[in-house]
Here is the input.
Amino acid sequence: MEFYADICQRKLLGYERLYNASLQIKDREVFIDSLTTDMPPAPDHFSRCSDINRDGPTLISNLPVLKGMGPENLNQMSKGKDALVLDIRHYDSFGGQHVSGAYHIDLGGNFSTFAGWVLPPDRDILMVSYDYVQAEEARIGLLRVGLDRAAGFLDGGMFDWSKSGLPSGHIGQLSAKELHQMSTGGSAFAIVDVRAPSEYNSFHIQGAVNIPVADLRTRYKELDPQMPTAVVCSTGHRSSLGASILKQHGFKDLYNVAGGMTGYSAAGFAPECPVCFVPHGPKFLGMPLK
Here is the structure.
């Protein structure tokens, strides 16, 4: 068994030596510099998880079971300072109708990373999902980044919420063609590109402002809440999260770009982004090997 494990390890190292761009750098100082300069910011949960790993995590058996909550109950609980609403449905579903003030992190995107990055760890998390199975999947994803306070999910989803007569919010979804028409037309509006700087620098729409999505929690102040604003990323996932954050801060005329810059490129309005497939990896990813 040890012999087999050694062979597997050698094969893995050999593969990395052949195809890992960083390992193609022969100069020692250049290699060190590539790993220690201009790196993307570390998500908030990195430091938090270090503390949890050091002290030991809470046993899952000691955590409360995820429970279904009726609309009135969830609405009442969400108004307290100790709770937040997290919508995990597809971004088009969130755009169509959502609980006002909710964060949106699409379970189909890089869910755990961005949940750990932007969600306050000291509040109960009330989820809006399609069903219990999806909510439970999200709960497990939250546990992996040190978020242990998943308190419940909206039983019956937004369908039952609507039948209860409770208010909801909306965010328009723009196609690539609609965004192109807006960006080349005469109407005044803002484009906020929430991708990583490496993605933005590879190509961006003229006039777009680059604020990485997690930074919108504080840098929203740099934007005009009265200006119609389109939020764009590589696919529509991060931009929907960004739009949900902006909406929490009083932005009303908001649009999420469905398909993001990937769709914008596919429609022929932009070149293909060489780093969008792994936006939070090392900066040399996506570059050709030399």
About this structure: The CA atoms of residues 173 and 256 lie 5 Å apart. The first helix runs from residue 2 to 19. The radius of gyration is 21 Å. The beta strands are 67-69, 83-87, 103-104, 124-128, 150-154, 172-174, 190-193, 209-210, 229-232, 254-257.
